[in-house]
């Protein structure tokens, strides 16, 4: 540590210069918009009395926006749909990613290179484009997968149809993350287990999977975070089907408030609520899973 | 090496270059089949789009969906798309590359500078900054798009290239990865030697730090390139003039018009195909630069 203290004397302001761009960007595009949204969420627009001519002005509204937002059944049905969607996408993404990673890591599996690349590719396809592709696969008029017999936008089916697009886009990246973690494990570990007569399946379940848990946890966390902010897939499928309304998930509701109804005050209040909820969920998830990983490691 | 090395089974082949010493005899049929099914699932939408793009707009809804059309429908579709509103589709393509490349480069530089400072210097507020960045990784960035729009509309920066670029330059995860990478790739002794030789801190960062962080920075760049390339909500709320749209927003607007005018569907399908192909090509050619172990190594 002696070195770092001399560093501080000699280097002067240089470290501050290095972090200046990031701190400025953080202040301008995270703190300031957050603060501004908070400010707006306590205001509302009031129409002036008619005698002196029209016009509006903003007034302090206290918690009225929050009361309206939290009492809005549209938002709560959106939250429920988001949860239902997350119940499809999060386990499916993480489990398939883990499954494919483990299969790729087996010695006797063939066609590893080509399958690995193909499963990874959807990561580079934007959610909107992916939704367009799947949308045409679902659409009865163009569907090659039986869209004229099966209603892909049915009351329950729609969650799987929307969720499928998200899973399709996310499995590959998560698979690569877990696969890389598997390849980094020391091989001696399995050799001795093999000598002791452990089967390949036991090695996977008892050694490999527990040891790559940190990578699985990170994938789960990022998938949960994405699920809370779901927007692209349902929003793109909306023009193709009546099953998806313009307030289908919370983020679509915020967009609809801000641009459909020009009510930026409600949109700001909903943004604050959703950001706080998402932060809380991701913090709690991070806390729970990291403590569990530490327990297992101990 | 221990004495038992000769008797124990050979270690697993770690890389494609090093062939296994003892070739496994049987192919694991079930795992291979499962992987092939997974790969098919991932490639089918792209293949179908390829087939659909070969069909003229009348055939799209009438002929058997699996068979491609060989009457040069795809040439006509590409020509129609290129003429649509004076070739605006190619504008969108260029815009997407511009946002992703410029944004990715600037964001990587910002991340590198911050990560390097956090890893290599002791300064006041360092741990507060690092904790803020860790929390930032958990921040729902997409939800911020609407508040960012509300603020930028206050200062008149909406519907501008800057309004789309600037909010995407702060990348807490990139900073985190750069810090981890700088810690392992830039040795303190080398910096000390440079200082003794009289190099300034700025020169040390640019010619020693950035150079040694190069391989990690490529990954940070690619991650951010894809993130910006895939982004929809931010440009969607920021932009109103369609000549500034990236592909995602452009094709979405085309789809919305298509809901009223079904003949536009074949343009949407052709546009989707043309937008997927270049990024897959780019992706495959840059494949060997991916350092995903950085993403997972960051956990240790």
TrEMBL record, chain A:
<feature type="transmembrane region" description="Helical">
    <location>
        <begin position="116"/>
        <end position="137"/>
    </location>
</feature>
<keyword id="KW-0472">Membrane</keyword>
<keyword id="KW-0813">Transport</keyword>
<comment type="similarity">
    <text>Belongs to the binding-protein-dependent transport system permease family.</text>
</comment>
<keyword id="KW-1003">Cell membrane</keyword>
<dbReference type="Pfam" id="PF00528">
    <property type="entry name" value="BPD_transp_1"/>
</dbReference>
<keyword id="KW-1133">Transmembrane helix</keyword>
<dbReference type="InterPro" id="IPR035906">
    <property type="entry name" value="MetI-like_sf"/>
</dbReference>
<keyword id="KW-0812">Transmembrane</keyword>
<dbReference type="InterPro" id="IPR050809">
    <property type="entry name" value="UgpAE/MalFG_permease"/>
</dbReference>
<dbReference type="GO" id="GO:0005886">
    <property type="term" value="C:plasma membrane"/>
</dbReference>
<protein>
    <submittedName>
        <fullName>Carbohydrate ABC transporter membrane protein 1, CUT1 family</fullName>
    </submittedName>
</protein>
<dbReference type="GO" id="GO:0055085">
    <property type="term" value="P:transmembrane transport"/>
</dbReference>
<feature type="transmembrane region" description="Helical">
    <location>
        <begin position="211"/>
        <end position="231"/>
    </location>
</feature>
<dbReference type="InterPro" id="IPR000515">
    <property type="entry name" value="MetI-like"/>
</dbReference>
<feature type="transmembrane region" description="Helical">
    <location>
        <begin position="264"/>
        <end position="286"/>
    </location>
</feature>
<feature type="transmembrane region" description="Helical">
    <location>
        <begin position="157"/>
        <end position="182"/>
    </location>
</feature>
<feature type="domain" description="ABC transmembrane type-1">
    <location>
        <begin position="79"/>
        <end position="285"/>
    </location>
</feature>
<feature type="transmembrane region" description="Helical">
    <location>
        <begin position="78"/>
        <end position="104"/>
    </location>
</feature>
<feature type="transmembrane region" description="Helical">
    <location>
        <begin position="16"/>
        <end position="40"/>
    </location>
</feature>
TrEMBL record, chain B:
<feature type="transmembrane region" description="Helical">
    <location>
        <begin position="162"/>
        <end position="182"/>
    </location>
</feature>
<feature type="transmembrane region" description="Helical">
    <location>
        <begin position="203"/>
        <end position="229"/>
    </location>
</feature>
<feature type="transmembrane region" description="Helical">
    <location>
        <begin position="97"/>
        <end position="119"/>
    </location>
</feature>
<dbReference type="GO" id="GO:0005886">
    <property type="term" value="C:plasma membrane"/>
</dbReference>
<comment type="similarity">
    <text>Belongs to the binding-protein-dependent transport system permease family.</text>
</comment>
<feature type="domain" description="ABC transmembrane type-1">
    <location>
        <begin position="93"/>
        <end position="286"/>
    </location>
</feature>
<dbReference type="Pfam" id="PF00528">
    <property type="entry name" value="BPD_transp_1"/>
</dbReference>
<feature type="transmembrane region" description="Helical">
    <location>
        <begin position="27"/>
        <end position="51"/>
    </location>
</feature>
<keyword id="KW-0812">Transmembrane</keyword>
<keyword id="KW-1003">Cell membrane</keyword>
<feature type="transmembrane region" description="Helical">
    <location>
        <begin position="128"/>
        <end position="150"/>
    </location>
</feature>
<dbReference type="InterPro" id="IPR000515">
    <property type="entry name" value="MetI-like"/>
</dbReference>
<protein>
    <submittedName>
        <fullName>Multiple sugar transport system permease protein</fullName>
    </submittedName>
</protein>
<feature type="transmembrane region" description="Helical">
    <location>
        <begin position="262"/>
        <end position="284"/>
    </location>
</feature>
<keyword id="KW-1133">Transmembrane helix</keyword>
<keyword id="KW-0762">Sugar transport</keyword>
<keyword id="KW-0472">Membrane</keyword>
<keyword id="KW-0813">Transport</keyword>
<dbReference type="GO" id="GO:0055085">
    <property type="term" value="P:transmembrane transport"/>
</dbReference>
<dbReference type="InterPro" id="IPR035906">
    <property type="entry name" value="MetI-like_sf"/>
</dbReference>
């Amino acid at each position: 540590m002696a070195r770092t203290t001399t560093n501080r004397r000699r280097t002067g302001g240089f470290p501050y210069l290095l972090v200046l761009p990031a701190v400025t960007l953080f202040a301008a595009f995270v703190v300031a918009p957050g603060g501004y949204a908070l400010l707006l969420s306590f205001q509302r627009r009031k129409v002036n009395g008619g005698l002196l001519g029209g016009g509006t002005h903003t007034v302090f509204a206290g918690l009225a926006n929050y009361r309206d937002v939290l009492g809005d059944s549209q938002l709560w049905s959106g939250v429920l749909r988001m949860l239902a969607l997350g119940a499809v996408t999060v386990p499916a993404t993480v489990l398939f990613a883990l499954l494919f990673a483990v299969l790729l890591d087996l010695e006797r599996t063939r066609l590893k290179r080509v399958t690995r690349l193909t499963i990874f590719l959807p990561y580079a396809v934007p959610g909107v484009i992916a939704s367009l592709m799947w949308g045409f696969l679902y659409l009865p008029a163009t569907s090659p997968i039986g869209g004229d017999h099966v209603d892909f936008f049915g009351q329950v089916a729609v969650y799987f149809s929307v969720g499928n697009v998200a899973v399709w886009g996310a499995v590959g990246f998560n698979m690569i993350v877990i696969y890389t973690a598997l390849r980094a494990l020391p091989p001696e570990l399995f050799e001795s287990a093999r000598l002791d007569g452990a089967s390949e399946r036991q090695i996977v379940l008892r050694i490999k999977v527990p040891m790559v848990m940190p990578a699985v946890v990170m994938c789960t966390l990022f998938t949960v975070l994405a699920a809370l902010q779901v927007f692209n897939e349902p929003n793109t499928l909306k023009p193709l089907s009546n099953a998806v309304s313009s307030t289908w998930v919370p983020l679509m509701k915020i967009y609809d408030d801000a641009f459909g109804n020009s009510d930026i005050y409600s949109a700001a209040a909903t943004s604050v609520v959703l950001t706080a909820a998402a932060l809380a969920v991701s913090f709690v998830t991070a806390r729970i899973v990291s403590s569990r990983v530490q327990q297992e490691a101990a | 090496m221990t004495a038992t090395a000769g008797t124990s089974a050979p270690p697993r082949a770690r890389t494609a270059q090093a062939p296994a010493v003892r070739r496994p005899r049987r192919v694991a049929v079930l795992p291979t089949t499962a992987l092939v099914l997974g790969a098919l699932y991932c490639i089918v939408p792209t293949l179908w789009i390829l087939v659909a793009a070969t069909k003229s707009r009348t055939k799209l809804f009438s002929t058997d969906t699996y068979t491609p059309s060989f009457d040069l429908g795809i040439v006509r579709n590409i020509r129609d798309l290129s003429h649509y509103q004076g070739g605006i589709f190619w504008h969108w393509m260029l815009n997407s590359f511009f946002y992703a490349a410029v944004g990715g480069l600037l964001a990587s530089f910002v991340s590198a500078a911050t990560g390097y400072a956090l890893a290599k210097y002791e300064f006041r507020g360092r741990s507060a900054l690092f904790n803020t960045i860790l929390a930032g990784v958990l921040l729902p960035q997409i939800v911020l798009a609407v508040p960012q729009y509300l603020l930028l509309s206050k200062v008149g920066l909406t519907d501008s290239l800057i309004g789309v670029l600037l909010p995407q330059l702060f990348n807490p995860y990139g900073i985190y990865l750069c810090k981890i990478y700088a810690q392992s790739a830039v040795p303190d002794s080398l910096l000390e030697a440079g200082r003794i030789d009289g190099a300034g801190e700025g020169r040390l960062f640019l010619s020693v730090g950035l150079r040694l962080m190069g391989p990690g920075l490529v990954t940070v760049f690619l991650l951010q390139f894809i993130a910006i390339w895939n982004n929809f909500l931010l440009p969607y709320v920021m932009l109103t003039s369609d000549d500034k749209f990236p592909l995602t927003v452009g094709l979405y607007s085309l789809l919305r018009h298509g809901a009223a005018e079904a003949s536009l569907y074949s343009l949407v399908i052709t546009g989707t195909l043309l937008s997927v192909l270049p990024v897959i090509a780019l992706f495959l050619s840059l494949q060997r630069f991916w350092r995903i172990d950085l993403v997972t190594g960051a956990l240790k």
